[in-house]
């Protein structure tokens, strides 16, 4: 062979250079097509995902938990399932180990399906011509629980697509959580948490290894493995799986041995039903929240419920059938106990009525707020004298609870003894509009609809309030006048301000000084609203409290507080029936004392301290004003610096008389200087007209000013010192029966120096009398002007209308 031909043969046998480039080109082309195919698949998948989204929203059974996470109350879901939401923190490592070992060992490694398991299952099914094993992952089982379908190959393809969707939108832990919340346990129980609570009576975190293994095997055979019915058979299956756990080294030998020997005592239990009234309230407020975290303390709630139940059973013989209690932590304003009625299951006595939110008459329970406002207005201090005497307030004549009057009393005595006339007089001075505005500021929403119809009677219970509103008001006295919104649910740490401080906004309704003065008064135990039951005197808690009894004895209130808690108690009948024995002191206060003794006996936090704005000053005990000329024995009293009024005491005034004290003189009619040697300067009580009328009616002697000099020609023009007509009432309409006419009484209140008054009807003199004497006349239909003048020439007028019935 020639060299040339050999060279050619060599070239023919040697691989040409161009095929390598072709191969490289083909490889790049394949990679590019693979990338495009992958991109096309992803685009199609994302498009289908957008067109056919997987619905993972599940209607859970709402759970109401306590402050510490304890389940208090459970409700059925909208589709009547006990499907309870288990949080990620409740899925313990033991739960993960058992469920993953049994259902999906490679859960955290596959993309939603296990191709190896699918191929293995397909081969087995083809060789046996029947379905012998499945290849469903936990993700695919979750899809099947969300969207149940028939077991077909088409359904399997849809499950694969849905599984990829789940993996795309949820993390592995969230998928496992969703799976554990949906697995069936027979009947209408779904989810690990529901089975744990309803069969074992405790949350998943407290389950033992044996109990967890039991709950792990049931979802595969919920119809045959029925807890409480087939427990012996369940134990056999449980132990078989425990043995497999031991063989796999999943748990140590001691743990497995203990689990094998543990008896199975599972049975169907009732769902938790504590705090039913608050639970329903929170469920309505948060309809789509699976777990509502209340601020209740389980021990406090259980104690309050039991005390209320037992107490109402004792007073039921008196025809008193219900009570409601609210306990608030003063530092955080969290509601730690909420009892709406004595027995929620008692439909005969209205047990399902929420007494915490029922609108009722407060009786005298609003008086502390009134006195706090009066302190802040500077109108009174604790020892200011107020007159507890019969008084006509423009036609309104209130009476005291015991139908007795005490004459001049201190403000602190009037509040501690819940006297009505001083309270109405203070409300008149402050103004109902100011008082209503303060109530609105303090959160009394029920006042909004009533405001236009409220008058002076509101301070004695003539308005509607709720136990929630009243308890919230009293937290203000424990928090230096700041009234905030009560917290029924727990607040996350990110919302908190300082430890022990309320996380809700607080509005100051009255000053810290006024709050302390009210507290100081309400702490006294020498008062009529201390229960008559001697047993309470031995266990009297150190609290400030106020009672209230509504008109007709329909509502009994007692609200108390210390540094830690404010507790509101209402006792009565939801039907509104009055009971003669019902009162705030003897019916509601004993329950209040029991609650404080059970929840906060002898609190170690000490007592309230006077704020810096309070000071002590000397005052006259006769009036509470700063001592004047005739004040001989001053005493000490609290005052609010810069607020409490500074007024000289005038409980007595100087009067010039003759030597015998039988005639008094004014500066206009003083005798000539040559005759002035017989003039004596004496002091006489400067009594209010209503107080003098009270003294006269009770035959209580008091000094009167001698008659004025009859020779005096001066006309006194001080209109405010003129007689005050208390009957009839200015602007009122009176109806008479023309066939049986009756007489009407005219009466007035006059100053201490008045001896005679003159009555005029339509400017015609009708009769003269002493100031304390009643004058009667027979009215006629039409407009009537009534005038009363005293012997000093001072007068006052009223106009009324007389109509035939």
Automatic annotation (TrEMBL):
From which domain of life does this come? Bacteria
Write down the chemical reaction(s) this protein catalyses: [GlcNAc-(1->4)-Mur2Ac(oyl-L-Ala-gamma-D-Glu-L-Lys-D-Ala-D-Ala)](n)-di-trans,octa-cis-undecaprenyl diphosphate + beta-D-GlcNAc-(1->4)-Mur2Ac(oyl-L-Ala-gamma-D-Glu-L-Lys-D-Ala-D-Ala)-di-trans,octa-cis-undecaprenyl diphosphate = [GlcNAc-(1->4)-Mur2Ac(oyl-L-Ala-gamma-D-Glu-L-Lys-D-Ala-D-Ala)](n+1)-di-trans,octa-cis-undecaprenyl diphosphate + di-trans,octa-cis-undecaprenyl diphosphate + H(+)
Stored PROSITE patterns: PLD
Q: In which pathway does it act?
A: Cell wall biogenesis; peptidoglycan biosynthesis
What cellular component GO annotations does this protein have? outer membrane-bounded periplasmic space
Q: Ranges for the PLD phosphodiesterase domain?
A: 317-348
Q: Which UniProt keywords apply?
A: Carboxypeptidase, Glycosyltransferase, Hydrolase, Membrane, Multifunctional enzyme, Protease, Transferase, Transmembrane, Transmembrane helix
Enzyme class, broadest EC rank: transferase
GO biological process terms, alphabetically, are:
peptidoglycan biosynthetic process; phosphorus metabolic process; proteolysis
Q: What is its EC number?
A: 2.4.99.28
Q: Where are the transmembrane segments?
A: 34-52
Key word Cytoplasm present: no
Output the Gene Ontology terms for molecular function. carboxypeptidase activity; penicillin binding; peptidoglycan glycosyltransferase activity
| InterPro entries linked to this entry | Beta-lactam/transpept-like, Glyco_trans_51, Glycosyltr_51/Transpeptidase, Lysozyme-like_dom_sf, PBP_1c, PBP_C, PBP_transglycosylase, PCN-bd_Tpept
Family per record = In the C-terminal section; belongs to the transpeptidase family. In the N-terminal section; belongs to the glycosyltransferase 51 family.
Q: What is this protein called?
A: peptidoglycan glycosyltransferase
Origin species, per record, is Fibrisoma limi BUZ 3
């Amino acid at each position: 062979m020639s060299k040339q031909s050999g060279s050619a043969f060599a070239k023919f046998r040697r691989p040409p250079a161009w095929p390598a480039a072709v191969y490289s080109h083909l490889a790049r082309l394949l990679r590019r097509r693979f990338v495009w195919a992958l991109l096309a698949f992803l685009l199609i998948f994302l498009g289908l995902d957008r067109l056919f989204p997987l619905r993972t929203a599940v209607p859970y059974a709402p759970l109401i938990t306590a402050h510490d996470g304890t389940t208090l109350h459970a409700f059925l879901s909208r589709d009547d399932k006990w499907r309870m939401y288990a949080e990620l923190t409740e899925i313990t490592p033991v739960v993960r180990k058992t469920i993953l070992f049994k259902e999906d060992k490679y859960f955290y490694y596959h993309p939603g399906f296990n191709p190896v398991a699918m191929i293995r299952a397909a081969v087995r099914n083809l060789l046996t011509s029947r379905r012998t094993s499945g290849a469903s992952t936990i993700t695919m089982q979750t899809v099947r629980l969300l969207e149940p379908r028939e077991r077909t190959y088409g359904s399997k393809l849809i499950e694969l697509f849905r599984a990829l969707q789940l993996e795309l939108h949820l993390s592995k832990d969230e998928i496992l959580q969703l799976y554990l919340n949906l697995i069936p346990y027979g009947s209408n129980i779904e989810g690990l948490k529901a089975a744990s609570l309803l069969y074992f009576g405790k949350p998943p975190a407290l389950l033992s290894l044996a109990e967890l293994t039991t709950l792990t095997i049931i979802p595969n055979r919920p119809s045959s493995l029925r807890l409480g019915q087939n427990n012996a058979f369940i134990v056999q299956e449980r132990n078989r799986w425990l043995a497999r756990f031991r063989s796999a080294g999943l748990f140590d030998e001691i743990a497995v041995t203990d689990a094998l020997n543990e008896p199975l005592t599972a049975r169907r239990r009732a769902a938790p039903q504590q705090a039913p009234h608050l639970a329903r309230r929170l469920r309505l407020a948060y309809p789509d929240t699976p777990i509502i975290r209340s601020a209740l303390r389980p021990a406090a709630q259980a104690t309050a419920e039991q005390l209320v139940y037992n107490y109402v059973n004792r007073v039921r013989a008196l025809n008193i059938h219900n009570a409601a209690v609210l306990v608030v932590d003063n530092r955080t304003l969290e509601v730690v106990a909420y009892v709406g009625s004595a027995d929620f299951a008692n439909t005969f006595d209205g047990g399902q009525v929420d007494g915490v939110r029922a609108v009722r008459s407060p009786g005298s329970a609003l008086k502390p707020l009134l006195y706090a406002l009066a302190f802040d207005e500077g109108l009174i201090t604790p020892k200011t004298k107020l007159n507890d005497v019969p008084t006509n307030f423009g036609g309104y004549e209130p009476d005291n609870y015991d139908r007795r009057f005490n004459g001049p009393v201190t403000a602190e005595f009037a509040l501690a003894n819940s006297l009505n006339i001083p309270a109405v007089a203070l409300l008149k001075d402050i103004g109902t509009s100011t008082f209503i505005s303060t109530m609105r500021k303090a959160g009394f929403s029920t006042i909004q609809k009533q405001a236009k119809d409220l008058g002076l009677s509101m301070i004695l219970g003539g308005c509607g309030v709720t136990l929630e509103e009243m308890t919230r008001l009293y937290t203000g006295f424990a928090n230096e006048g700041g009234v905030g919104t009560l917290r029924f649910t727990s607040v996350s740490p990110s919302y908190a301000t300082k430890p022990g401080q309320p996380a809700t906004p607080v509005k100051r309704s009255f000053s810290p000084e006024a709050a302390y003065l009210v507290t100081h008064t309400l702490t006294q135990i020498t008062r009529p609203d201390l229960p008559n039951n001697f047993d309470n005197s031995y266990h009297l808690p150190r609290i400030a409290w106020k009672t209230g009894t509504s008109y007709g004895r329909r509502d009994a209130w007692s609200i108390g507080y210390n540094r830690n808690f404010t507790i509101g108690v209402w006792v009565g009948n939801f039907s509104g029936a009055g009971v003669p024995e019902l009162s705030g002191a003897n019916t509601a206060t004993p329950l209040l004392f029991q609650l404080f003794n059970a929840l906060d006996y002898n609190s170690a936090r000490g007592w309230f301290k006077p704020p810096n704005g309070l000071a002590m000053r000397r005052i006259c005990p006769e009036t509470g004003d700063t001592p004047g000329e005739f004040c001989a024995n001053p005493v000490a009293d609290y005052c609010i610096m810069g607020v409490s009024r500074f007024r000289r005491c005038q409980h007595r005034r100087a009067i010039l008389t003759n030597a015998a004290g039988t005639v008094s003189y004014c500066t206009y009619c003083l005798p000539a200087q040559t005759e002035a040697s017989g003039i004596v300067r004496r002091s006489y009580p400067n009594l209010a007209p209503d107080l003098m009328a009270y003294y006269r009616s009770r035959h209580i002697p008091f000094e009167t000013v001698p008659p004025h000099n009859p020779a005096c020609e001066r006309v006194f023009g001080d209109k405010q010192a003129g007689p005050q007509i208390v009957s009839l009432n200015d602007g009122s309409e009176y109806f008479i029966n023309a066939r049986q006419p009756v007489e009407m009484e005219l009466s007035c209140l006059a100053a201490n120096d008045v001896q005679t008054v003159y009555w005029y009807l339509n400017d015609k003199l009708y009769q003269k009398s002493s100031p304390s004497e009643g004058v009667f006349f027979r009215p006629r239909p039409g407009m009537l002007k009534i005038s009363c003048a005293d012997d000093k020439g001072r007068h006052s007028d009223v106009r009324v209308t007389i109509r035939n019935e």
